[in-house]
Amino acid sequence: MQTDIRDAMPGDADLLAQWAAAMALETECKVLAPATILAGVHAGIADPARARYFIATGSAVFSGSEVVRLPVGTLMLTREWSDWRNGDWWWIQSVYVDPGYRRRGVLSALYRHVEKLARKTEGVIGLRLYVERDNAIAQRTYAALGMADAGYLIYEAGFGD
């Protein structure tokens, strides 16, 4: 399947919010508040300093011959400044591929797209992501893309729901 990658637009917010909710439920068994997710997606799309969303599209054939590009997956980037390296890590987050399009190269296309952008953007020192400790499938997938366990555990102190 040919996969094309584009920047998300405000009109994609509803779908991105739906996918974020599905990803949270699937990977962490968390039910998120739809209004909060939608507001967060809108805020991210509106402010590239906060987040940058990418949409993967794949083709589907309708009515026998009409080919239409459909959204099939997404990935969000955020930035983290590193004083140790005087540059930005790009964090890959909110990764989701529609279940009907998994194992068809969608995530790989998204990853290679942002990797290429990162390599040609001055000041970007690498890509990072976090993955659930028990999500062996995702871990194997990221390793196959060339990523390695960085040896960190993530701790947090949440404020709110």
TrEMBL record:
Where would I find the N-acetyltransferase domain in this sequence?
3-161
- Taxonomic superkingdom: Bacteria
Against CDD domains, the record matches this protein to: NAT_SF
Which Pfam families does the record match to this protein? Acetyltransf_1
The record's listing under SUPFAM superfamilies reads: Acyl-CoA N-acyltransferases (Nat)
This chain belongs to the protein called GNAT family N-acetyltransferase
